[in-house]
Amino acid sequence: YQAKRGGRLWLGYTPELDQGLRSRLEALQRLRGALKKKQIQPYFQPIVELRSGVRWGLEALARWVGEGLPPDLFIPLAEEAGLVHQIDRLVLCQALRLTASREERLTLNLSPRSLLDENLLRWLERVLGQWGFPAHRLWLEVTESVLMDNPVQVRARLGALKEMGLNIALDDFGSGYSSLSYLSELPIDLIKIDRRFTAGIGKSQRSEAILRSVVALAQNLGLLCLAEGVERPEQRAWLQEVGCALGQGYLFGPPQALE
Ligand code: C2E
Ligand code: MG
Ligand code: MG
Ligand code: MG
């Protein structure tokens, strides 16, 4: 580990550090194996229209079946190791195959690396065609960090995806360095508000004020708006009242295998 003290850089070593590194390498080795054996699979979580309670669509979320790690551990690990691209493709391919025959919207998470991959468009066209999945039913979720780091490339890429007929969602809105300029400049169709704000309903006036403002902003820009992490009926009622169109969370159902 590193520490700066009195203008000097100190490098330290502890046995635990070595242990941590070893288990990381081990996890990475196992993740490679899991990818080969297709043990990374999509689970699906319902997205619901708050007013009617009708299902609007499904989000596909990667799961490591068997003795695997949870996604909030293996996705960052895969991102660091340059493997997340393979996860995205595997999840996307399987999710398209599983849901092609349903008349349902599907949303999918794309890591920054996958979004900027130069073969993305060609590959998407091929797999959409392979499963007969209409582009307009697919929504790609991107996060704010990728917009900030590569604004020019991202704008061109999102534009090209829109031209193919796909839809774009901004995931975890408010969790990073949100900028209003993304919303005015980029071809975004759906804002997914981070679940930390939903968690503050009834508890934090600030969270409620932010939620109200983002919902109004989305309405004024003609964008769809979704609240993540809806767990309790009071949260749903509150969101419905302020005019949020869509919700997702344990109240409506956890991510689970399609059947
Ligand atoms: P996300 O895209 O924001 O997905 C929503 C996360 O919130 C999921 O976590 C879901 O299980 C969780 N969640 C849903 N409803 C509730 C709720 O009511 N309360 C709480 N506390 N949590 C809820 P999960 O499945 O652990 O995934 C974590 C993150 O990993 C995802 O966050 C997404 O950013 C990433 N991820 C998952 N699958 C993929 C994938 O195939 N590719 C990429 N690049 N990232 C993925
Ligand atoms: Mg998501
Ligand atoms: Mg996400
Ligand atoms: Mg999210």
TrEMBL record:
<protein>
    <submittedName>
        <fullName>Cyclic di-GMP phosphodiesterase Gmr</fullName>
    </submittedName>
</protein>
<feature type="domain" description="EAL">
    <location>
        <begin position="24"/>
        <end position="259"/>
    </location>
</feature>
